[in-house]
Amino acid sequence: MVDADVPERMQAAALDEFGGPEVITLRKLPVPEAAADEVLIKVLSAGVGVWDVYERQGVLVPEGTEFPIVPGSDGAGTVIAAGSQVTDLAVGDLVYVSATTRPKGGFYAEYAAVKAEYAAKLPDGVPAEHAGAMSTDALTALGGLDTLSLPAGAWLLIFGASGGQGHLAVQLAKRQRLNVIAVASGRDGVALVTRLGADVSLDGHADPAEVLATIRDAAPGGVGGILAMAGGKTLDRLTETLSDNAVVAYAHGVRPEPRERSGVTVRAYDGVANRQQLQRLNELIEAGPFVVHVAEKFPLGKVHQAHKRLETSYLGKLLLTIA
User: Fold this and answer.
1) Which InterPro entries match (predicted)?
2) Could you say which of 93, 152, 190, 253 would form a disulfide bridge with 79 (CB–CB 3.0 to 4.6 Å)?
3) Strand duo 294-299 + 200-203: pairing
């Protein structure tokens, strides 16, 4: 089924060469068509993440992509066409998407066609616009929690808790009935993770000795695992609070990687976008209020400014507004 009002061309932010933020420019491109296993989405918003920078630089380019490249693996919007093999989504559904493979272009555009398996109906409690910035980081956080596989009631330390992935991990961990120690960035970061339900909220820039003492007071038996969205000396010190045979799970791309030490296992993790994980994510989200904290919004025509903003410090996520 296809919405009758689909135009032939759309506005998109695309690049014809790899380079800095200036290579992404607005232009008119054909609206992609949905194949039998795809949906065509009228985009409401798109997330902006470091992976978009890697794509812009030519480091992580989706398989099958050709110039002009329309970046954007995260997005949300309305299904306006569904292929003949699509049975779980229909025209009119509000969806959010995580699509690392998208040969027909990404979400920096008014329309995007992606495989239906990468899309899920928008769960209750998440504003449709904010959902455009949620999927990749939320699925990655879920992958990290799966890697740790801590039992309910265990103590989890989240390092980088006020960032894009971290603030979502705090909420998902609480839905798994974990006790969360959130190490955030600055006063604003501490305030954010406290508001999101962290049991103990700490400033990663504070005196390391005081941070360690607070963690040991909260979890005298030791922390069961660390979910690390950043690396460095502070993280290395925090591993001193772990219980025996605990695990440090770190997101792929974290530099420097956490160091192995006696009694501590270090594992890398990533997110997986498929129907099963999206369904699990939706079930966790719908268990209570869920916040996708958007630090700043940019219109599509200001995408180069959004990419420059990625190089600075901010809480939560950055968002492109399309519709």
Assistant:
1) ADH-like_N, ER, GroES-like_sf, NAD(P)-bd_dom_sf, Zinc-ADH_QOR/CCCR
2) 93
3) unpaired
Please report, for residues 219, 246, 282, the alpha-carbon distance to residue 263 in angstroms, rounded to integers and kept in the order given.
Answer: 18, 7, 35
What is the crossing angle of helices 135-148 and 164-175, to 10°? 50
Measured on CA atoms in the order 176, 181, 184, 186, is the torsion positive or negative? positive
Q: What is the arithmetic mean of pLDDT over 24-51?
A: 97
Of 16, 12, 121, 134, give the one whose Cα is nearest residue 66.
16
Domains and CATH numbers, the chain: 9-134+292-321 (3.90.180.10), 137-269 (3.40.50.720)
Beta carbons of 211 and 204 less than 8 angstroms apart: yes
Per residue in 44-79, pLDDT (tens digit) is: 999 999 999 999 999 988 888 899 999 999 999 999
Q: Which residues partner with 201 through β-bridges? A: 182
pTM above 0.85, yes or no: yes
CA Rg, the chain, in Å?
20
Instruction: Give dist(CA 295, CA 120) in Å, integer.
Output: 24
Distance between CA atoms of residues 296 and 220, nearest Å:
39
Task: Name the CA dihedral angle for 275, 279, 282, 283, rounded to a multiple of 10 degrees.
Answer: -170
pLDDT for 312 equals 95
